[in-house]
Write a structure and sequence with these properties.
alpha+beta, Lipocalin, 3 domains, 8-stranded antiparallel barrel, two-stranded antiparallel ribbon, 2 helices, about 35% helix, rod-shaped
Amino acid sequence: MLMQGQCQHCAGIYEYEAGSKSEFCPHCGKETFFTTPRAHKIPPARLNIQPLIAWGCAALFALTSILLACLFLSEKHSLQITKTALDMAEQSEAELKSNVQVAEPVAKDNVSELAAEGRQALSGIYYCQQAINKNELDMRSDGSAVWLNDSSGQKFGTAKWTTDGDTVNVGTASRTDNFKIEGTDLIDSRGNRWLHIR
């Protein structure tokens, strides 16, 4: 039966037959004596972490690859949705253009009627307390206008007025006044409110 021993000279570990009293150390070559056979305590095996590191790196690489693939597929799907939306927008725009081209001649025929309706809705007497001298404006449905002073009833002159739906321009040969339409009232360039009184 083989036993393990330790050299008394060099502390080297070696095997020997049970019952022997001396041995020559295979490391230093000197004779070692022992009275009782004893087994050498073998140190516990150490955990080899190199395979664990390798497996961890492989798992990390696989997880990263999966995540990148998911991101790529998500971006590809988003691009497909965007392309579909753009195609639908282009198709809608083409349909809208064709509809506008069909409706355009009708709209051109109704321009004069719409202008007449706008003049009809805006025509009437407007009053502004802040204005000096000319503080009353009579805008008529035929496109003519008359400036008045409400206290004296004095007529200051006639003018022509036009509208684009957002503003009203009242002009004479020497001057044009611009008003912004706000509800049923007019706001002049100084910020004064002209009330539509009748």
